[in-house]
Specification:
Layout lengths: L2 H8 L4 H9 L5 H12 L3 H11 L5 H14 L3 H14 L12 H12 L4 H14 L3 H13 L6 H10 L3 H13 L1
Helix pairs in contact: 2-3, 3-4, 4-6, 5-6, 6-7, 7-9, 8-9, 9-11, 10-11
Length: 181
């Protein structure tokens, strides 16, 4: 199956079947084909469909590296958002280290991080964002995400932030989130 045929199949109503067939090609060629579409196709809809397929492919660690690159570099906001959501589906929050350029995509990524089943991993990532991100809006949004973690896992860190964050907006947002608890 050549790339043109695969691209047409990915855009058709039979896309899930085509993607499964591509993913099962021998010698990793299917994986490379899906990754090629996710990275390089001119059509954002095809790139998004390829990104959606990556979560089902092996090896997951390789898929996560590619998804992180797409979050950082894809020119289309909807493709970057899909990649951020797919990272959450693959369940390895440690792979999302570099934020996407768009604040909206970065906020969406923080939402997906807050929804991880592994609250400790989510807590570590959100702490990193709160303490190191250059964008005040993103730091505030990360504080909100901390408050949403299950079992109040983020509350001790929120208390610490409310008292001693070097960022005034973080201190204020942490106090607000603690008042709402």
């Amino acid at each position: 199956m050549d790339a043109l045929t695969v691209g047409a199949a990915a855009a058709s109503p039979f896309a899930p079947t085509a993607n499964e067939a591509i993913g099962e090609m021998p010698d990793g060629r299917g994986f490379e084909t899906i990754l090629n579409f996710a990275r390089n196709d001119r059509d954002p809809d095809i790139r998004k469909r390829a990104v959606e397929s990556i979560a089902q492919l092996d090896p997951p660690s390789r898929a996560l590296d590619v998804l992180a690159q797409i979050v950082r570099n894809d020119p289309d906001e909807s493709v970057r958002r899909e990649a951020a959501e797919t990272i959450a589906e693959v369940h390895d929050p440690s792979r999302y280290r570099s934020p996407a350029p768009s604040i909206e995509v970065r906020k969406k990524a923080l939402e997906t991080i807050a929804d991880f089943k592994d609250e400790q991993s989510a807590l570590r990532l959100l702490k990193t964002v709160v303490e190191n991100d250059n964008e005040p809006d993103i730091r505030r949004y990360a504080v909100e995400a901390l408050a949403e973690l299950n079992d109040d896992v983020g509350v001790p860190f929120l208390r610490e932030l409310a008292k001693s964050s070097r960022f005034p907006e973080v201190r204020a947002k942490a106090r607000e989130m603690l008042d709402d608890k």
